[in-house]
Specification:
With about 350 residues, this protein is α+β, with helices and mostly antiparallel strands. About 40% of the residues lie in helices and about 10% in strands.
């Protein structure tokens, strides 16, 4: 966790920002890679890179947004070297990894480390402090996966979350450590009982869901807000719903409910909670609340309707201009493969209240 999420980002960002200590016999003017300075650095303000970043935020920036955000801001050969690291990290951080992928990740890590020394260090004594231990540690990453399995399964992510949860439960400031120890013991005892008697596990109890939620089963839950009455869809939405129903139930009487223009009356829901704890927010509700626009299911002229149980996770489609053309690239939430292990649940409070819509 700390190697990829804190140590490597701290190394590279300081190099690109030109904030590394410069030896008296060296000259920062020769640091061709230090291009994230001045206006270029300010233009990255939306990324809010600062020392207060959490580990997963560094991860998201460096291994998610970075390849597009830093394209054109870093020299081409520096950017290509950086992308080699991103590819290796994405391979090695999977919950499941094949032998071929492991071999490729190992090769990329070794190539990246060797090229790092040539690119930044250049065998110069005045720059030897650029070569931190974390750069060489990557050479052994794939070997650790081979002997211990995917390291994401044994990373510090879940432990850090557990520590945070336990700290939140402290209610005796006068003796916090004793209180913390008792909370940890209590949690261990409860977990042991649930393991021995699964019927005691109420994590899947529908009574634990928010008021007004509709449990669809298998971890899928519709969350408020919702329409009190059915409302007509747009023509593209109606066509998408019609095509879906016709493909799975061609004899469904619901097909006769569609108007001549292709619209149909439906009751809408604002949010869908997935089994991994992520929450999908619809364009309908988010535009009304003027809230999060980054997690919306967005509409266009080529809409399709799908079964919600086919949705495995939420990804970001980030707009990116390349050679004068508008493109999009996909970014997954860091650690999405192991959210099942950590029991992660996304906070839905910022998405608006839980009132039904009249």
């Amino acid at each position: 966790m700390h190697l990829l999420s804190l140590n490597i980002p701290d190394l590279l960002i300081n190099l690109w920002h030109g904030t590394f200590e410069c030896d008296p016999d060296d000259d920062k003017a020769t640091w061709f890679w230090a291009t994230l300075t001045g206006d270029t650095w300010k233009s990255l303000g939306k990324a809010k890179i600062n020392s207060g970043y959490k580990a997963w935020e560094f991860w998201l920036f460096l291994y998610g947004l970075g390849p597009a955000v830093l394209f054109g801001r870093l020299p081409d050969h520096v950017w290509e070297h950086y992308c080699k690291l991103v590819y290796a990290v994405r391979l090695i951080s999977q919950y499941r990894i094949s032998q071929d992928e492991l071999i490729l990740a190992n090769q990329l890590f070794h190539e990246w480390r060797k090229d790092f020394e040539v690119l930044y260090y250049s065998r110069m004594v005045t720059r030897i402090h650029f070569v931190r231990q974390c750069a060489h540690a990557l050479d052994h990453y794939a070997d650790e996966v081979f002997t211990k399995g995917p390291l994401i399964c044994a990373s510090q992510w879940t432990m850090e979350r557990t520590i945070g949860n336990l700290v939140e439960e402290i209610r005796q400031p006068s003796s916090p450590y004793a209180n913390l120890a008792q909370r940890a013991i209590h949690r261990a005892q409860v977990n042991a009982l649930k393991s021995m008697m699964p019927c005691l596990n109420d994590s899947n109890d529908v009574t634990m869901l928010p008021r007004g939620a509709n449990d669809l089963g298998n971890g899928y839950v519709l969350l408020c807000c919702q329409d009190h009455v059915a409302r007509p869809t747009s023509v593209p939405e109606g066509c998408a719903v019609y095509n879906y129903i016709h493909s799975v139930h061609p004899d469904s009487p619901t097909l006769h409910a569609f108007a001549s223009d292709g619209t149909v009356r439906i009751a809408r829901w604002a949010c869908l909670q997935l089994p991994n704890g992520q929450i999908a927010h619809t364009l309908w509700k988010e535009t009304q609340m003027n809230a999060r626009r980054s997690r919306n299911v967005k509409e266009d002229e080529e809409l399709i309707a799908i079964n919600v149980t086919s949705i495995q996770s939420i990804v970001a489609m980030i707009p990116h201009s390349l050679n004068g053309q508008q493109h999009f690239y996909m970014v997954e939430r860091p650690g999405a493969d192991v959210t099942y292990l950590g029991g992660y649940l996304e906070d839905n409070q910022a998405g608006g209240g839980g009132e039904d819509l009249a």
